[in-house]
Specification:
It comes from Scytalopus superciliaris. Pfam families: WD40. This is WDR86 protein. Keywords: Repeat, WD repeat. The chain is mainly beta. It has a five-stranded mixed sheet with strand order 1-30-29-28-27. Strands 2-33-32-31 form a four-stranded antiparallel sheet, with no helix packed on it. A hairpin with a 4-residue loop joins strand 4 and strand 5. Helix 1 runs antiparallel to helix 2.
């Protein structure tokens, strides 16, 4: 049974629920976007608020942090770009006609998805819309981006100039893949019977994973559009996905997380203990961290499924988690950002892994039959620990 942990710091500056938490690529800053219509910038060095971004006319739905710029999108139909040093609003992107619920920054592009049934592409450095992706019959909930260089062997002649593609998931039960240059739909992926809530892309292996309110996860070949596998064991909507070393972790409204072997479709672990939907998850150093509608975060041994710790203190759903320098950051609809020390869990997990490897090393000397028997387990341990 996991033991309870206390936060090392509770940040209460926001006046409304926190909808998203983003970590900068260099790990120096965190950005929170809130129901109070503001975003706040936090230093991971001292856990202090070093920026307060004001200007949106309604609540912030999502945020994204780069090293020098921050991006927020809002129910006021706009996206804003901010200078992280001065807090100045550098650009306002206007064009959507309803709530903007998701943004994605890739290269010099800013992508957005909205309840107005469209996705859009903007120039990061200008307030100019480059492309509109129109074709979904309902709101666009989630986005992914990749380059055709990563996946296509032969490209269509007309698409040679720009090789970027955008993937959108919608409440119309479809996933669409679009050419960024033309706005043309390259593939429509059909199979889900419920809203597509989450996407995760594995471009090197040409695979896309989608989670839905139809209780399934589906794997697609993003070149051919072929549906490869359907993962069916969840008993509730699939809310969040994480892909680590060919292991797929899925969090669901059925109060569980499941781990699947991508290559075979086999479900190898179920993580139980949540008392409400699993709203967010993050893998770190062999540990699976989860946030739930029961206001708790949890840490599980990713291999054994054993609950190692419960982080109690939030009052409402945990919407997002981040991990940096063995600190766990949890952002909740209760308006607080809480910071937890996870060094003890990480150390225990490392010791356990070393012990398991030592045992496997001795067992491997017992003969070819033993090697065959232990090979699958050994590979799983190595993959989950990033070797």
């Amino acid at each position: 049974m996991g033991n309870s942990g206390s936060a090392v710091k509770v940040c209460t500056d926001h006046q409304g629920g926190i909808n998203w938490l983003s970590l900068s690529p260099d790990g120096q800053r965190l950005l929170t976007g809130s129901e109070d219509g503001t975003a706040r910038l936090w230093s991971t060095a001292d856990s202090q608020c070093h920026g307060h971004f004001q200007g949106h006319e309604s609540y912030i739905t999502f945020c994204h942090l780069e090293n020098e710029a921050a991006f927020t999108c809002s129910a006021d139909h706009t996206i804003r770009k901010w200078d992280v040093l001065t807090g100045q609003c550098l650009a306002i992107y206007r064009g959507h006609t309803s709530i903007v619920n998701r943004i994605l920054v890739a290269k010099d592009y800013l992508f957005s998805g909205s309840y107005d049934r469209t996705a859009r592409c903007w120039s990061v450095d200008k307030e100019k819309q480059i492309q509109e992706f129109r074709g979904h019959r309902n709101c666009v909930l989630t986005l992914a981006h990749y380059s055709s260089r990563d996946v296509l062997e032969e490209e269509e002649e007309e698409e040679r100039v720009s090789r970027d593609l955008l993937v959108t998931g919608s409440t119309d039960c479809t996933v669409k893949v679009w050419w960024v240059s033309s706005g043309r739909c390259y593939q429509t992926l059909l199979g889900h019977t419920g809203a597509v809530l989450c996407l995760i892309l594995d471009a090197p292996n040409r695979e896309l994973f989608s989670g839905s309110t139809d209780y399934t996860i589906r794997t697609w070949n993003i070149v051919t559009g072929e549906q490869l596998k359907v993962f069916k064991e969840h008993q509730g909507s699939v809310i969040c996905l994480e892909l680590v070393n060919r292991h797929l972790y899925s969090g669901s409204a059925d109060r569980t997380v499941k781990c699947w072997l991508v290559d075979t479709g086999e479900r190898i672990q179920t993580y139980k203990a949540h008392k409400h939907s699993v709203s967010t998850l993050k893998y770190h150093a062999g540990i699976l961290f989860t946030g739930s509608g029961d206001a708790c975060a949890r840490a599980f041994n990713s291999k054994s499924g054993v609950l190692q710790k419960i982080f109690r203190g939030h009052k409402f759903i945990i919407n997002c988690i981040q991990i940096h320098n063995e600190l766990l950051y949890t952002a909740s609809h209760d308006g607080t950002l809480r910071i937890w020390d996870i060094r003890g869990i990480c150390k225990r997990n490392k010791r356990r892994f070393k012990k398991e490897r030592s045992v496997q090393g001795r067992s491997s000397q017992k003969g070819s039959l033993s090697r065959l028997f232990n090979n699958k387990v050994g590979c799983m341990v190595q993959q989950e620990n990033g070797e």
